[in-house]
Amino acid sequence: MKRIIATIVFLTLAIAGLVFLFYHWVNKQDYRQFNPIDAIPLNASLILNIDDFELFTNSVKSNSWWKTLERGDVVKSFAGMLNYLDSAAKSDNTVRTALKGTNTAVAFYNHHPRGSEFLLAHKVPKEINQSDILELIKLQSLGYAKAEEIQIAGNSAIYVEVPEGNYFSLTFTVFSNLLLVSNSQELLVESVKKLKEDAAVESDEQFQSLYQTAATGVAANVFVNINELSKTLSVENNSLALKGVASWVGLDVQVSPTMVIANGLIVSSATNGDYYKIFTRQNPVPFSLHGYMPASTSFFTWYGLPSIPNFMADYSDYIDNLGLTEPYNRNLSGFLAHTGVSIDEFLGKNLDNEVAVLSAKLQNDSTDWFILANTKSGSATLQQLESFAGTKTIVKHEFKPDKQNSFLIIENPIKWFIPTLLGNSFLKVNDGFVTVIDNVLVFGSSISSLEFIINEYLRNNTLTRTESYRSVQQRISTSSNLILYSKGMDSYPLSELRLHGKPTQLYKGKTLSSHSFIWQVVGGSQKLFAMLAIKSSQADLTETPSSLKNVKWVCKLSTEPIGKPHLLVNHLNGQPEVLVQDSENSIYLISNDGHILWKRKIGAPILGSVNQVDIYRNKKLQMAFAAGNRIYLVDRNGNDVEGFPVTLPARATSPLSAFDYDSNRNYRFIVACSDKKIYCYDTNGKPVNGWLSFKTETVVSSRIGYVSNQGKDYILIFDQNRPYLLNRRGEERLKPQSFFAKAKNSEFYLVGNSGKGSYLLTTDTLGIIKKLFFDGRVESQVLEPYSPNHTFIMAGKNYFILDRNRISIYSTEGKLKNAILSSSGDFDTGNLQVMASNNLVLTNRDESIFGYDFSGKPLSFFPISGSIPIVEVNSGNKLFVTLSKQNGVICFAIK
After folding, report:
1. How many whole angstroms separate alpha carbon 570 and alpha carbon 574?
2. Among 639, 642, 605, which Cα is nearest to 625's?
3. d(C-alpha 723, C-alpha 719), whole Å
4. Distance between CA atoms of 264 and 223, rounded to whole angstroms?
C-alpha cells in the first residue's frame, strides 16, 4: 500500500513538474523580454542605438543638418515617422511615457531601388499596457492619417498612410515587449522571424565588439555595416568606392543645433585586405598640408604615411581584395620602365609623411583638382622628376609673382602614374604640370592653375584661414593618418553618390545652411580610432573670392585685421603696397598682387596713419608710426631703423605726424601722449633740442597738423576743449579770440593759398562750421544741428556730414545739395570717406561698405564686405583694397 501511495505521489509530482515546465516554456515564448537590438536583422546597412528616444528626437529635429536632410529621398520616411511620433507624444501623455527614457534601435536598409527602408524597435516601458499601444496609434491617426488593422507574421498591426506633404506609409506591430515600426512590411515579418529564431545582428562578432564598447549618455550610437552598404552605395564612375573599405564602424554621436560630433572605432576583416587596414601599420603624423590648400578648397583627402614599405604592401592587399591586381602591377611595372626606379623607392626617398588630393574653385569660377605631396627636399624631388624626362623636351615655365619670389613649373614626366597608384579621389586629378612651394610638390592640370595655388599661398588665403574649415578642424586630433573634408551638400563626394547606380538626392530645394564635414582616422593599431564633425552655418557666409563682388584677390592674415589699410609706395619699382595690422598686433606688408612680403610683431595697434619718409635722403623710403608708448621707424624689409623704436614717456594718444619744414628731409616726428604733453623727436630717435614739450588742457586724440602761412610755421593741435597753434619750438604762436571744441570725428583743412585770407576749417561738437583765421579771428557758419558724434569731411567745394542714418552734402556756401538716407539703421559712427576724383561717397554699416555718387544715388556694385577707408592700388584698373573681419584683406574693382 505504501508503495502504491508513493508511486501516486511521485507521478503526481512528475505530472505537476511537467505541467510547470510546459507552462514555463510557453510563458517564455510569449513573454520573453527582448532588447531592441535583438529585433534588427543581420543585413542592416546602418544601425542607431538610442537610450532615450524623446531626447534623440528633440536634438535631431533642432539640428540644421537634419533639417536639410529630411527634405531628401534618403531619410524622408524616417523623418516622417519622427514627426509622426513627436506629434503623437505632444498630444497624448501615454504615448510620451511610452517613448521617453527607454531604449530604441533603428536600422536602415538599401535593398530596394525604390528607396531606403528602415526598421525601428522600441522597448515599451513596463507601466504601459502593451495591448493598448496599437489602439493608441490608431487613435492618434484620426484626422491626420489613414489607419487600418492588418496582420504581420500572425501579429496584430496598424498600417498608417500619411498623405500630407511628402507621402509616406508606416506599419506598427508589437512583439513581446517591443514596439516595431517600419515603412516595409517585409522587414517587420523578417524582424519577428529573427526574434523567434534568436538570429539577429547581435550574432555578428565584429558588430558585438563595437556594441559592447558603445558609450552611454550620448544622442545615439551609430553602427555602419560597410560590407552591406557597399553593395548598393557607390560613387559616380566608381562602383567599387566602398567595397572592401572595412567591416563595421561604430560611433558615439552628440548633436547640437549647429554641430554633429561623433567618435568611435573601425574594425576590419580578419582575413581580407580591407582599405582601412592600410592605416593599422602607420603611426599618426601631424597634418600640415592644409596650410598650402587654397581657401576655395571644397574637398580634400589626406594621407599620413610615415612608412612607405608598409603602405605599399597593405595597399597591394587591398587592390588584390578588389580583384584589380593585374592592372595595378602593370602600372607599377610601367613606372619602373619609364623612370628606372620603383615607385617604392621614389616615394620612400622623397615623400615626407603626407600626400593629399583636393578640389578647389579657381578665380574664373571653374573647378580644378590638385595633388600635394610633402617632400624631404622640394628642389631635389623636382630635379629628379625633370631627370625622368630623359631626352624628351618638356615645357618649363618660370613664374615670378613678385620681385622676391620665383617658382619653376614643369611639364610632369610621370603623368597619371601617381593618381593611378593612389586611386579613388586621386584619379580626379589631371597632373600634367608640377611645381614646388617650400618642400611641397604640387601637381595640377595647367600652368595657370598652379599659378593660382602659388598666389593663394603667398596671400595666406589658405583653407586654414576659413571659418568653415576651422570650425570642424578644431574638433579632430592634431595627428592622424586619414582626413576627408567636404564643404557643402553639393560638393564631392556627396554630389556623386549613387544608390543602386542612380543619383541620390540627399536634399531637395534650396538648402538654408552650409554644412562642412570632416572625417578622420587615427591608425597605429588593429582597431582604428575615428572622428566625425559636421558643422552647419548660414549659407550666405562669404569666404572665397568668387563669392565677393568684383574681387581680384583676398589675402588672409593670421587673425582678423584691425585699423585701416595704409597705402605705401615701393621705392624700388614705384608700385603701390599696403601695410595692414591684425588683432594680435602683427603688421604685414602686402604687394599690390596680394602677396605677403613680410610680417612682424609690434607692441600695440597703430594710431592713425603711417608716414613714409626718406631720412637717409637716398630715395629709399621708411615707414613711421606711433603704437602704444613707442614711435616706430621701419625700413621696407620690416627692420627697425637705428635709434628706433623710441620709447615715449607716456602712451601715445594721437597719430604720429612727420613734418619736413624746409623740404630738406630733416624730419620732425611729433606725437601727443596721455600725460597731455606734445613730444618732438628727430630722425635719430632723439628729443629735439629746444622743444618745450607743450602741455594741453585735455588729452589730444586727433592728428597733429602743420601749415606755413606768410612765412610763419603753425603746428595745429586740437584737444577736447580748444585749438592750439604752436611754433617750431612748441610755444603757442597764436591764441584764438574764442575757443571751441572740435568734433572728434571732424577733419580740419587749410582753406586759401596761405595768404591773408587763409583760414583753418572744421566743425565743433554742435556741427557748426568753424573758420579759424591766422589773426586769431573765429567765424561760424551754421548749417543744421548735428550730434557730437557727427563726421565732417570737406572735398572740393562741398561739405559732407554723416550723422546717424543720414549723409548731408552741402556747398561751401551752406546750401544743401543732396542727402543720403539709410532705411536700414544708422551708418557706423565716424565711417565716412569721400573720393572726389571718383565721385564717390563711402560709408559703413554692419561690416559692409555702401557707395553713392555725389547726387546721392546708390551704386550698383555696392555693398561689399569690408570697411573704410579703402585705398587705391591700381588706378588704371580701378583696384582698391579694403579690410574685412571675416575675409581679411580684399582687393576689388570699382567699375
Report:
1. 5
2. 605
3. 7
4. 10
